[in-house]
Structures are given as structure tokens and as C-alpha cells.
Amino acid sequence: MKVLVANLGSTSFKYRLFDMETEAQLARGGIERIGQDAEGGCFVEIDGKRSDRPQRVKDHAAAVQICLDQLTDPAGGCLKSVDEVAAIGFKAVFAGKLSGVRIVTPELLDTMEALADVAPAHNPPYARAMRQLQAAFPQIPLVAALETAFHETIPEENRTYAVPYEWKADCEVQKWGYHGASHRYIGTRIAQLIGRDDLRVISCHLGGSNSLCAMRGGVSQANTLGMTPQTGLPHNNRVGDFDPFALPLLMRKTGKSLTELLADLSERSGLLGISGLSGDVRDLEQAAEQGHARADLALKVFVAEIRRYLGSYLVVLNGADAIVFTGGIGENSQRVRREVCAKLGFADIKLDPHLNETAKGEARISAKDSRVEIWTVPTNEEIVVARQSVECLGSRV
Description:
Blueprint: E1 2-9, E2 12-19, E3 24-31, E4 42-46, E5 49-52, H1 60-71, E6 85-90, E7 101-103, H2 106-114, H3 123-136, E8 142-145, H4 165-171, H5 180-194, E9 200-206, E10 210-216, E11 219-223, H6 247-254, H7 258-267, H8 270-275, H9 281-289, H10 293-317, E12 322-326, H11 327-332, H12 334-340, H13 353-358, E13 363-364, E14 373-376, H14 381-394
Parallel strand pairs: 1-6, 6-8, 9-12, 12-14
Antiparallel strand pairs: 1-2, 2-3, 3-4, 4-5, 7-8, 9-10, 10-11, 13-14
């Protein structure tokens, strides 16, 4: 069985193709600037050979058709026909109570569109593209693996806001949690690396958006992301935790509307907002080294918030067996890892400075006398979605 896993943006389409008998990646590719009046990058990589061909693409359905044409090209494709694709899987974000892994239906798409204000950067492009693909490829099942699915195991006391209970019951206002595919992969992979399936793990997904997840035996117990993907830790340009009672004051002081302020919080805040320079940790680290005070402050705030949640998750799990750093920042920022793990010896968490500086890929970076193992592990959300798609299709048989 072959499954195509799609990663969608409002103007982009990236994919990986897996042979699920072996879980081997057969190909990957992508297209940018979809729907724009300009040629976008278009590439496909099969067996380590990459070809690039910029072209203009009108919508996501056209982008998928181009990719399928590349994959079935007799001159170098890896498929004999489109019929070999058993499903297209999506790392969808939010559909409220329609969580889990499910075949894409009109009800699901209507719900995602109705809840677009919860995930404004994610739901609209996914719902729009899914509708286009259903119309263009009715013979291929579409599977949505909702980001919230992994966190359905979180205990109610860790999911419920202290608001009128009717908001939770009637309006679905609760801490839903996100980055489910990434944390699920980390929980599975670290158990394989350490050789235990009963681990207490704190997974640190740090990248463009960020979250920590507390897991016991690979099962989610808490996640820093709440009702929306704008919450929890600071993100590259999204706020993270914020007191909503500041909004009336900001409306008076700035003259901005609620809609304008929400746009500031979701697009011009986070690391970008503090630094005034960039939301990219690489840029901030370089600027901080050159004496940029606000870049340094942004990094310090970021680390402080990670440590705050890390400490609370040690309480949730009654300790930890492993801390795992993943995502672009988690895998590559020596400074963030070093400062997050500083002065945690009281919890038997000790980083090895040399291993931290030389870590690449899957690597243990804890000191020999650290009871808690510290790792860097690259995540693989796509293979998780592919596995879930196979399970979903199997449940229909």
C-alpha cells in the first residue's frame, strides 16, 4: 500500500510518498507560490535524485496533479499509475469534537471552516485544498489525522479551563493540544531508543511553533498548546500565553480594534514581537552575540517559558526518564538546549556540554551521571500520518 502525505500551506504543497509495506519513503516533493501570478519552485526527489522545474500553478488540485504526473513519469517516476496511491493523508489541525483520524467528509470540511477562527493559519487552506482534491481525484480517499487526536488521553483536570462550564460543554472551549503527530512519533521512537515502553517523557517540539508534551508510556498527559495554536510557549510570530484582560487597555491606548489586536498577537508577536528583528532563533542567536539586547531578551523569555512548563511537567509525571528535543530549534540550537537544562541537577537532569555541541540527528546529550536521559531526535510527522491513514482505511474494510 502506498500513501501520499500532504503538508499544506495557503500557497504551498509539500508531500512525501511512502510504501507502507516497508515504511520506506519513495519520494518527496513540493510546489510553492500556488495561486499567485508568478512561477513557484516545483521539485521532486526520487532515489536521491532531485529535479527542479519552476512553473505557475493555479490551485492545490493542479499542484497534486503535477506531483502525480512526476511520480508516474515513465522516464523516472516511482509509480506505474495513480491507482497505486491508496490514500492522501493530511496532518489537519482542528475540527473540535470531530477529532481523531477520519475519512474527509463534507461534515468534517464544514466543521473545519466553521472553526477557522481557532486555527486561522491552518484550517482555511486545508479545507479549501481538500475540497479541490475531492473534486479532482474522487477515486482517492482523503484521510485527516487531526492534531488534537493524540491529546484525547489528557486527564480532564489538565484539559479544562476555569471558565463557566457551559463554555466547555456547549462551545468546546478547552485545552485541545496540538503537534500531536510529532509528539506521538517522539514517544514511540524514544521508547525504541531506550528500550522501554513505560517511560515518562517530556517532548520539546521547538520550531516555527512550539510545544511541550508530557507523556507516560507514549500516552499524552499534558500539552502546552491550549484552545488554539497561538497559546503556550512563545512562537516565532505568535504570542503564546497572554492575559486577555490586557485587550481593553490596548484597544483604548492604541486605537486598534479587537480584530487588529488579535492579528498582532497571531502575526507580529512571539520572538518577532519581542526582538523587533526576527522570529527565527538562528537570526536571534547571531544578533545576540553581536550585542542586540532585544534579540537576547527574546531568547531568554523563550527559554524561561520552556523551563516553566518543563518544571510543571516534572510534577505531572512525578519525575521524568527522558527529555527529548525535536523540531528545527530543538535539534539545532545548542544555546536553547544548554539554557533549558541549566541548573536542573536537583532533578537529576544534567547536560553534557561536549555532547550538546556535537549532537547531530538522534543523539544522547545527557551527562553520564544524569539519571534523566536527554536526547535530540528528529521528528517524522509524515510517517505517523501515513500509519494513521493505513489504520483508518483498514477500519473501513
